[in-house]
Structures
1.
Amino acid sequence: MMSWVSAVAAFVLVAHVAAVAQTAPAAKPAQSAAPPGRVDAGGALYKKVGCYQCHANEAQGGLSGPRIGPNLFPFARFSEYIRKPTGEMPPYTPKVLSDQDVADIYAWVQARPRPPAVNTLPQLAP
Amino acid sequence: MGRRRRSRSGLERRRFLQQGALAGAALVAAPRVADAQAAAPPAQAPPPVMTHAAEGAAPADVLVLRDEERAGSDFMVDVFKSLGFEYFFANPGSSFRGLHESVINYGGNRSPELITCCHEESSVAMAHAYFKAEGKPAAIMAHGTVGLQHASMAIYNAWCDRVPVYVILGNHADAALRRGPEWYHGVQDAAAMVRDYTKWDDFPWSLTHFAESAVRAYQVAMTPPMAPVVMVLDGGLQEHPVPRSERFGIPRPSLPVPPQGERGAVEEAAKLLVAAEYPVLVADRMARTPNGMTRLVELAETLQAAVIDQGSRMNFPSRHPLNQTLRARAAVAEADVVLGLELVDYWGTVNALRDQLHRSTRRVAKPTAKLISITTGDLYIRANYQDFRRLQEIDLAIGADAEATLPALVDAVKRLVTADRRRVYEERGAKLTQASRAAAEAARVAATYAWEASPVSVARLCAEVWAQIRNEDWSLVSSYYSNDQTNWPRRLWNFDRSYQWLGHAGGGGIGYGAPAAVGGALANRRHGRLSVAIQTDGDMMYAPGVIWTAAHHRIPLLTVMNNNRAYHQEIMHVQKMCNARNRGVDRGEIGSQLLDPNIDYAKLAQSMGVYAEGPIENPNDLGPAIRRALAVVKKGDPALVDVVTQAR
């Protein structure tokens, strides 16, 4: 049986993080500070280690996790949060996700396509 | 099925009991077992079964109801009709065959009408959602043992959701008269199994007893806080004849007026709200009727206060400028007064729990924030199942029905509002309007990401459905995801009518969504509303036979499968454990996926006579498919579109 009770509790903090992420000015990622990452390998890792479960297949955010890219966080913040999350996200230690893995995932997230303008989509008309 | 043999003395004893005589007197009148065994009765009137003499007796004549008699269950139908039941949901069972036959023949299968279900869990979930759409309870029938065991999880859901479901159980109490299977279906105390999560039950011994208890059960179920009730009906009481000349009274139900908050306490609450700089109104199981939403809008607009709709009921229009549900936590953090209206979890509203290896909590609301509560939850609590949540200290707790109390509260607030306060409110309302518009716009923009992705994003799915139904008189009858506050329909669609949102399962038991959608659609059918379900695949697989029920009974319902091929929330939980134990997370999906083979929901639906398309993986194919399915639904039949979606 699904424990929606815990899910609701879990969502509360994640939503807060999401709200911060979605309402904060889009920080210019410090591309120069990011180590070289491999987009294809990052995409495979994104699926393999379960990022998509909360952040959805294209890093656009889902019911339980905020959008994480592209162009939302500098690498340092991205990496730091993965190691020491302050919300509901489980921590990823170097044992299960190396620094290179994190860089690969970051590269893949940064490479996600930009969405169409909202006003061009009649399905989303207010 | 062979007809039961019965002695005349046994029959008379039955009649005596059914006529409401004292059980003690009946014991005197009934023959003792030793007497029955000693005197071999004539072949035309064989002795009761399970006696030594019966072993060698010839078969009895076929016994049919005489013209001057009627079945006990016919009278039961009279009582149920008097209570206004329109539907009985049931998977057939021999322990209530007497009542079943009376419903379809004596009662003409009209009010109540039998709805054929393929699982007792479906029966209850359908009745559960039917109530939330129609505001009237429905009944289910089930065996007192195996049927109730199937039904029990759904009854627990209804109880957690404080929804009245009228549970009728068949049972054969008299062990001397049981057929072989009735031993498995017989039980001393059938309701014991669910007594922890039902409000009242009875096992009547006579028809007079039945009539009073049936009406009492209805009254108990419908008195806030509402909850399921159980009536156990003995097979003998259902099946044995009673003289037509015997008249049994049917009590008139007297539903108590829901308790309204005490006047002084209501005025104190009004003072706190009027004086507050940032009052927040939080509603969960508040709106029992459409009037609940109307009154909450009136209170919010009078105060220009923020409103958070926690979603167990349709409490507040989703696009109302004062609706701050999409930024609920921020609103609570800012509040100096919080008014909780039938909150399931007050503690969780003003605190947060962090689910990591070591769980931690923190207060979200200001320490100085005044907390007011109006709830019937304070009037009813049970010990075993822990749905009462953590204890929250409340500054002003009003043990009353919130909807019933709102008119008095609105009046008290209006009396206290001054011109100065009104100016403050206008400024506050303007800021809240700005905030809700920004949140709604952010939701629209968020939905654009992964717009062209395959599998289809859940946001795209919901946007495509909305584009097709927005100009219809629609009702979202699925429970959708467990988190009701911020799911995609609530973020993108304009909910402004009481039947457009039916809340969730209550107890979090999966398997509620599909049958609840059909039950809600059944209620909507008579009103000509377009019923829509966004149906998760894991939920559907608990009891997919409900698709057949929708087809058989011609219940129009558009089902759009949110087919993400896994129990993804459970994957997240396992993943959390993998991370916490530092063992790697690449195996976290084992045990929670619905892959290999993929389930073809279109074929599943087609096999039960339902129009269906899919699986759809290209998001651009979705709109046309929904349009085609919608055309079928508008003709009065169910239809299903299977969409392969992203995780959540």
2.
Amino acid sequence: MLAKKMRLVLILLTLLLVFSGTSFADQVNIGVYEPLTGPMAAGGQMTLEGIRLAHELYPTVLGKEVRLFVEDNKTDKAEAALTVSRLIELRNVVAIVGTYGSSLAMSGGPVAETAGVPVMGCSPTHPLVTQGNDYYFRACFIDPFQGYIMAKYAYETLGARKVAIIQDIAQDYSVGLAHFFRQAFVEFTGDPASVVGLTSYQTLDTDFTAQLTYLRGLGPEAIFAPGYYGDVALLVTQARELGLGIPFLGGDACEAPEFIEIGGAYVEGVAISTHYSADAPVTDESSKFVAAFIEKYGYSPSAFAALGYDAYRLILDAIERAGTTDSGAIRDALAETYRFEGATGYITMDEDGNAVKTGVILEVKDGEFVYAGSVEPR
Amino acid sequence: MTLTHFFQHLANGVYLGSLYALIAIGYTMVYGILRLINFAHGELLIVGAFIAYYGILIFHLPWWFSFIIAIALGALVGMSLERVAYRPLRERGAPRISLLVSAIGASFFLQNLGLVIIGGRHKSFYRPPFFAQTVQLGDVTVMNFLFVLPIITIIILGIVFFLVYRSKTGMAMRALAKDYPTARLMGININRIIAYTFALGSALAAIGGIMYALRYPAIHPLAGVLPGLKCFIAAVVGGIGNVPGAVLGGFLLGMLEIMGIAFFPHLAGYRDAIAFIVLIIILSFKPTGLLGEQVVEKV
């Protein structure tokens, strides 16, 4: 008798699970895949804060309720592809937002393209995320520009003529950004030997003393470390402990509260490039976003929160312009996005599906990221 | 590479090596006595580090007291783990391979429990200023911690030796390592001795975890996977079950990782590959590890 009851309960539970994800006529399903755990957890969670805020402020489209389905890709490339297909097949999403981490986006991208579901990237900056994929777009600039920003900073602001690079060889983002930085810096100096050394580590490595000792021997005036926040914070800490006092530069992946918590006094003065600063609002929407964000969370938003906010709204905007929730029509509308007013600036999609935007430089000062200037697109 | 740089690399290698050695001791001790590879050892490292972290953060304990609490609670967690994940299997006479699978399961369980309770974001571990201070030896810069670490490793080595070879419980542990049924016939309470072994092994893991976190002060629930794996390999290379072997293996692995980059800086991305190729070569010449015993299989 008991077994029979149990079986009934199980069947009901299964049915509940099956139907909980199906779409009904009066609702629009939008998927989110982000690294909420693993080495990039901070990036994914900051982005999600922005997406949730946007969903709260803009909960409907075409008179229908928007339902968000959030999946954790665990900072894992295989998991990233899986979460995208889960969102599409199980949750019937019409469009997807994500993901922090270029390698993750490059793994999820082809799955979405095959299924014909458009994805709006928040912060994956590697060129290959959107190149050759008609269904991947992004709300951020790409690494050739980001490499240029930091090369310009190193050459003009720091006056460095010899730099070294330490990259995370397991991340497409890091290898790509290192390459573009090198290109831009050599363009500034006109001397290929001005990049005196390039060395590598891997995600999850914690000891960088050997690489740093090697680079110190080459006598660079600054070091560019385009890795993720946790690794770079440890790396700079170890550099200072080895008595290496030269300036360190990073990319947008350094922007996380963890970078300063872990690095403490050691990361003072580190300069990074990023997409946006709450201290320098660019549009009316920026001010509205910052105010709403502080009211909801009690602290100032990161660039990733702003990009998550914009990515969600870009999809809603495309659905509105398409007048339908058909994935193909949303894709076409996204590709035609022109001067959309986002929190991170006015967004226009180029032919590859990338936003062309102003870059921002932040510096760590007294334990906080402080706005240190903007660089216009070339 | 100048001589100065070589010495700096050497100091870095000693550093990493003693850390690996310290963690490998716990691994090898549990194996030597129970013939069980405790794959959850890496997670026990992080459990220890997190208890110390929260002791300082939430309960505002002085750091040294928080470390002691973490070591004690770490031992308790290890004992409970044994109670839940290993003892039921052992009492039903399960083969060793089932215990191994259970150990891997326990490892995943602890990782995911950590993700649910603590979340996946990095936490910054508190470092007493003394440890982080640097000393200048000629042109070589080292942290005070570099001198503390080998001393701690040697003290722990001494304690483990005393407990295993000079105490009565240690005698029971060694008897257990030889033969369970006979040990039981000699009046040894097997469950108690195994629990004791686990407590000791987990306390060692907690010490290792705290030392690891002091050196690399960014901890998260998955941070124990890599050091756990590497120290397991260090223990195997040294001859698993052999405590001085684990120290040797750990030292060797740390040194290889640093020197691999020092001599081949352009291949820095292949650091683990270089280190492990050397270890494979060692194992192919000495299959039981550097100081491993020749085991005669009973038929």
